[in-house]
Each structure stands twice: as C-alpha cells, then as structure tokens.
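Today's session is about reading a structure prediction critically. Students often jump straight to the picture, but the first step is always the sequence itself: look for stretches that repeat, for charged clusters, for runs of hydrophobic residues. Only then move on to the predicted structure, which in these notes is written as discrete structure tokens rather than atom positions. Here is the chain we will use throughout the hour.
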Amino acid sequence: MNNSHLLHTPFAELPVEARVLFFIFASAAIARFGVYPPTPTQLAPQLEAIWNEHKLNDEDLADPGRLTVLLEKNLVSKGTGTI
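Below is the predicted structure for this chain, in token form.
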C-alpha cells in the first residue's frame, strides 16, 4: 500500500484527524466480523503497530477499501480479542 513518492509518517506523529480516520476504518473492518468495536484505548496500540509495520502514509487513508482489507487481515492475524 505504501506509495513510494510519499514518506511514511510514524503513527505517533500523525495528526488527530488521521488517527480518527484510521480508527474508523479499523472499526469498519472489525464490524464485518459481527462483533462490538473495541474502544480506542484497546485498539490504538494495534493500529500503531499496523501503521508503522506497513509504513503507511496520508495517501493510504484516501483508499478506504484497500485500507479496510489490510486492517481486516492484520487485525485477524494479530489475534485481537475483539474479532
């Protein structure tokens, strides 16, 4: 997903709006499994790990379909207790 012409911004340096959008996409990915979405406190460490591991950037947030698929795969593979 990483676009080579944009540099990766570490999760900790993302603007609040980008973090909220990423959380919304993660909630959508989890909702497809028919469970209650986790709280931001429960999900934030996992999202930070996914964001940094895949070296995502702001442009990746512009493609919700691909981002949701990525989150579905990664949240399942990381064994979240919510899925």
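Discussion point for the tutorial: The mean pLDDT is 80.
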